[in-house]
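Researcher: Here's the sequence for the chain we discussed earlier.
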Amino acid sequence: MTTVQDDEQIADVSETIAATRILPVVVLEDAASAPALAAALTAGGLRAIEVTFRTAAAADSIRAMSDRPDLLVGAGTVLTPAQVDEAADAGARFVVSPGFSPAVVRHCQERGLPVFPGAATATEIQMALDAGLTTVKFFPAEQLGGVKMIKALAAPFRSVRFIPTGGVNTGNLADYLAVPAVLAVGGTWMVAPALLAEGRWDEVTRLTAAAVAASRPSA
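Model: Thanks. This is the structure I predict for it:
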């Protein structure tokens, strides 16, 4: 099938994620919480969110937030082409996968959906480049060597941008964002499951605002 992925669309998605340099990675158990979560995140200054397909509420959660003009909603933990369809039909604007799946990448491209596949090795990064991609998710970041590993991989792959996810927190956020090859970081601390389950939206906003502030370069 012919690839219909739009380079301008990919650039728009990447620029939106790069604007605040933090991509909250959300696991929602109840789609009814999605509108309140979206409001809390945007109040804190974020403009993009990754809703993971780890629960049955993922597609409905994406659908509940996708019509907001101030929030770019994507789907994460996408493992199959069928989930690509489910995410796209719900209104997802981009897809993130934990590893490199040629079938998932190909189907995203066929649907014109920007995709950021997981890449943990030089071989997987080369596969991404062969597929025409220049931004990958580096997961699980801390367990794979963190900042040092990203710097090592970025040296030969100078056109590649990374979204490290897994073990990123307020303690190491600045270290990751100081690496020129890092487009943004994926994080969960501002959307921790307990906060969402308890509906502590003010705390979500507070943590989000603090993360956004910490991501800005020092004057």
